[in-house]
Amino acid sequence: MADAREEILGRIRGVPRPATPDVPRDYDHDRGYADVVALFDERITDYRAHVHRVGARELPYRIGERLDARGRIVVPADVPGAWRVPGVDWAPDDPRLGLSELDSADGVLTGCALAIAETGTIVLDAGAAQGRRMLTLVPDYHLCVVRAEQIVGSVPEAIAALEPQRPLTFISGPSATSDIELDRVEGVHGPRTLEVLLVS
């Protein structure tokens, strides 16, 4: 039995490996969308996110409006001071909050690295105003600020702009999954509710 095994493995080892073919990477990066902001709004709304168009000057007011009476809200340590409006029970992630503190929070407020119009996707990379990944996966509600200039048209554009060694999280609407009967259940692997303040 051992001789047959060695004979088979010897044959496998003796087979020459094929050369790795060159794969063209000439993706169509720019789709030429006329209005990436409107397309992003349409696509992420289709994923059941709640989108609110706001002006830059009214952003703090609209943050307060969305979070009014919502309870304890987690924020990354470096979130802009203007976003921390009075009247909200803020829980800064400094020092780092534990899992039980995040689980008992009523929501989280963050910015984003960029957004993709074509797929209605928000991308987080743990950069400025985003905090660590855990902040946006544990609380049941996520309020995300997306600026118009952060929106790119396509996935290839986004990949070219992101740093692949950073912890990337792609969010297309509230967390959801379906069972074999295709019954949709939200909030299983992340926030049940996603709200976006789209600043332009």
How would you characterize this protein structure?
The protein has six helices and twelve strands. Helices cover 26% and strands 24% of the residues. The mean pLDDT is 91. The protein is globular. It is an alpha/beta fold and 200 residues long. The strands form three sheets. Strands 1-12-7-4-2-3 form a six-stranded parallel beta sheet, sandwiched between helices. A four-stranded mixed beta sheet has the order 8-5-6-9. The protein has one domain (34-199): Rossmann fold (3-Layer(aba) Sandwich), CATH 3.40.50.10420. The N and C termini lie far apart (72 Å).
| Strand proportion | 15-25%
Q: What fold name goes in the CATH topology slot? A: Rossmann fold
Assigned CATH superfamily: NagB/RpiA/CoA transferase-like
- What structural class do helix, strand and pairing data support? alpha/beta
Residues in helix, %: 25-40%
Q: Which CATH architecture is right?
A: 3-Layer(aba) Sandwich
N-to-C order of helices and strands = HHEHEEHEEEHEEHEEEE
Poorly predicted runs of 5 or more residues: none
Total of helices: 6
Count of individual domains: 1
Strand order of the largest sheet: 1-12-7-4-2-3
Q: How does the SSE layout of this entry go?
A:
Layout lengths: L1 H13 L21 H11 L3 E5 L4 H9 L4 E4 L13 E4 L6 H6 L2 E4 L3 E3 L4 E4 L8 H5 L3 E7 L3 E2 L2 H7 L7 E3 L4 E3 L5 E3 L6 E7 L1
Parallel strand pairs: 1-12, 2-3, 2-4, 4-7, 5-8, 7-12
Antiparallel strand pairs: 5-6, 6-9, 10-11
